[in-house]
Amino acid sequence: RCLGINYRSQIRLKSDIGFVLDIDGVLLRGSEPIPQAKEALELLQVNKVPFILLTNGGGLTEKSRIEFISSRIGVPLSPLQIIQSHTPMKTYAVNKTYQRVMVVGGVGDRSRECAYGYGFKDVVMPIDYVRQNPSISPYHNFSKDSLEKDAKDVDVSSAIDAILVFHDSRDMSTDTQVILDFLNSENGVVGTKRNFKSSEPSVPIIFSNNDFVWPNKYNLPRFGQGALRIMIEALYREVNQLKPSENLKSTIMGKPFPVQYNFAHHVLIDWREKLLKNQVNSLEQILPPLDSEPKNSPFSKIYMVGDNPASDIKGANDYGWESLLLRTGVYNDREGTDILPTGGIHDNILAAVKSVLR
Ligand code: G3P
Ligand code: MG
After folding, report:
1. Ligand 1 pocket by C-beta < 6 Å: which residues?
2. Can you give the residue range of the structural domain that contains 113?
3. Cys-Cys link to 40, which of 115, 205, 293, 350 (CB 3.0-4.6 A)?
């Protein structure tokens, strides 16, 4: 489904501008397509404007995600055109920074499949520890079926090297408990507790995004991974009796942080190359170095289209891209925003794209 992208050959590639599009609240709302998304993407494709999708969502492979979006919107897209919040974490696997990781968030064990795809040697999830000993989370909500299907047998004596939060929790209580256990463990071994207090956790924790809220079909935005981080930090602070000036040491990826925009910038340059060489059906993916700015960008302008001022717009403004804010997601005119887009506020993605191409 992702193959067969048809860019009209007689039209010259508009190679000096590029688009980076957010997904939730721009192309989809929950799993429903935003009505103008199809026409907007087709307009970019027909005009040969390079574009990629940059989302703070995740919890499944990039291929599965792009196939889903492609089928919902009805426009062919390549797996090389998407960056999820955790995509840069692949670098940790390839560079062997961490080998045995606990991945948190997402439905069933789809995040595990994704992490193995990145190349991590061993991937465990909180559900594995619940299956091994349900009293680790006495009020967990996993069904018998899910414990059989989604959990795997874990070697409880093996330490984990890091906690990677891939996506929103499906069982926040279990995830919170198990994460806190590991942060305060003896060197990452489950069921142990270190005998000192510190702002430095026993194993590193990396959050893949910091979105406090995200939009779905409900009329008010819902809590996201940023809310989980606040809970984890508050509990860690309590357990470790941190001073007001101290905080849990952690890493946060995703928009609005430059690490994600640098990664996206490399991927957009690569996609432009693929368009220039007529290789849009290639599945050969580059792996950009973490947090390094491309040296020679061929783009004179890059436009970020998003619905979340605190993530999409702030990130783009800080990074020096043009930013276009939409009314189809988190942002609404009633509440307004202090984070102003450089390219204006638009009713939907089609209006935003047209305002640039005009
Ligand atoms: O969970 C996803 C949500 O936090 C935001 O996704 O596509 O708007 O960056 P997106
Ligand atoms: Mg969004």
Report:
1. 22-25, 55-57, 168, 209, 211, 214, 224, 308
2. 87-252
3. 350
